Amino acid sequence: MTTETPFRTGFVSIVGSPNVGKSTLLNQLLKQRLSIVCKKPQTTRNRILGIYNAPGCQILFFDTPGFHQGPKALDRFLTNQALSACANVDLILVLVESCGERSRLPQPLLEVVAQSRIPALLAINKIDLIERPRLLPLMESHARDFPFREILPVSALKGEGLDELLAAMIRFLPEGPQLYPGDMISDLPERFFAGELIREQVLKNVHAEIPYGTAVCIETFNERDDGLVMIEAAIIVERESHKKVLVGHNGQMIRRIGEAARGQLEKFLGTRVFLKTFVRVEKKWTRSMSKLDEFGYHEG
Ligand SMILES: Nc1nc2c(ncn2[C@@H]2O[C@H](COP(=O)(O)OP(=O)(O)OP(=O)(O)O)[C@@H](O)[C@H]2O)c(=O)[nH]1
Ligand SMILES: [Mg+2]
After folding, report:
1. C-alpha radius of gyration, the chain, whole number
2. Considering the entire predicted model, what is its pTM?
3. Which of 125, 141, 146, 292 could form a disulfide with 297 if both were Cys (CB 3.0 to 4.6 A apart)?
4. Separation between Cα atoms, residue 111 and residue 109, nearest integer Å
5. What residue ranges of the chain are covered by domains with CATH 3.30.300.20?
6. To test ligand 1's pocket by mutation, which of 19, 39, 96 has the most ligand atoms within 8 angstroms of CB?
C-alpha cells in the first residue's frame, strides 16, 4: 500500500526592514522579476502576491514594504501594509541582513509577529557579504532574542540557501488544495506591474529624495489586435523643481526612463509595447490619503 504525500498550500508573508532584500528573495524564489528591486530603501509600496508552484505544494507569498516609521501619510500607509501582512497568513518569514545596521532584529515588527502567534522563520540574507565564521554567532544571538522556529542563512542575490529555505517553509504549511491555477504568478493585473516597472526606472535614474515622492499612474493600457500594447503613464511628482529634474535637459531624462521602462515592459509582457510617459505635479500627494488612494495605494 502506498501513502501519498498530501498537497500543501499556504500563505507566507515576507517582512523586514527596508532594503534587506525581500523583493529580491521573492523574485529568486519565483524565478520571475515580479517585484521591483533597487539599492535605495522604500522601493516596495504595495503588498504583492507572488505564487510559487511546485509538485505537491503551492506557496502564496506576500512581498511587503520595508517596515519603517515616518510622519507622512505615505509612511503610515507603508507601515500598515507591512503590519497587516502579519495577520491571516500561515507563516511569517522575517528577513534581516547579515551585517550592518539592518542585521539587527526589527523589534517593533517582531512585537506584532509575537502577538499574531503565527509561526515565524528568520532568514539572514546577504551572507555573501560576510565571512562564514561570523554566521553561527549571529544565528545564535538571533535565536536567543526571538523564538523563531528556524533560522536560515541565505543569499537572495546569489541564490544560496534557497532550497533549504523552501523546504523549511513547506514544513509549516497546512495541507490543502491548490488555490490558484498552476501557471498563475500573481493576482495583480498587468497594468499594476506596468506602473511598477516605470517606477523602478525612476528609482534607478533619479537621485536623492525625488523618487520617494514619485508615483506612477497608468492612464491607458490597451492591447491592439496586432498585439502591440499601448500604454500612457503619468509620473506624479510633488514639486515643479522635481518635474524639471525628471524631464531633464531637452527631455533627455524622461526619454531615458521611458526607453528603459519600455524594454522591461516588453520582457515582462512578452510583446511589443508603445509607451508614452509624461510628468505631472500633484503638490503634497504623499501627505494626502485621498491622493494615495487615487494613485493605487489602497488600505486593506
Ligand atoms: N550582496 C547582496 N545584495 C543583495 C542580496 N539580496 C538583495 N540585495 C540587494 O539589496 C538591495 C535591496 O534589495 P530589495 O530586494 O529591493 O530590498 P527590499 O527589502 O525589497 O527593499 P524595500 O522594498 O525598499 O523594503 C538591492 O540592491 C539588491 O540587489 C544578497 O543576497 N546579497
Ligand atoms: Mg521591496
Report:
1. 20
2. 0.89
3. 292
4. 5
5. 190-294
6. 19
Secondary structure of 40-108 in HEC code, one letter for each residue = CCCCCCCCEEEEEEECCEEEEEEECCCCCCCCCHHHHHHHHHHHHCCCCCCEEEEEEECCCHHHCCCHH
Kindly give the confidence (pLDDT) of every residue in the chain, 300 residues in length, as a single tens digit, with 9 standing for 90 and above.
556 789 999 999 999 999 999 999 999 999 988 888 988 888 988 888 999 999 999 999 999 999 888 888 888 888 888 888 999 999 999 999 999 989 999 999 999 999 999 999 999 999 999 999 999 999 999 999 999 999 999 999 999 999 999 999 999 999 999 999 988 889 888 889 999 999 999 999 998 778 888 999 999 999 888 989 999 999 999 999 999 999 999 999 999 999 999 999 999 888 999 999 999 999 988 888 888 888 888 775
Q: Which atom of ligand 1 sits closest to the CA of residue 24? A: 15
Q: Domain spanning 8-171: which CATH class is it, in words?
A: alpha beta
How far separated are the first and last CA of the chain, in Å rounded?
47
What does the alpha-carbon distance between residue 53 and residue 273 come to, in Å, rounded to a whole number?
Answer: 29
Asked if 262 contacts 268 with a C-beta cutoff of 8 angstroms, the reply is no
The CATH number of the domain covering residues in 190-294: 3.30.300.20
Distance (Å) from CA 156 to ligand 2 centroid: 12
In the chain, residues under CATH classification 3.40.50.300 are: 8-171
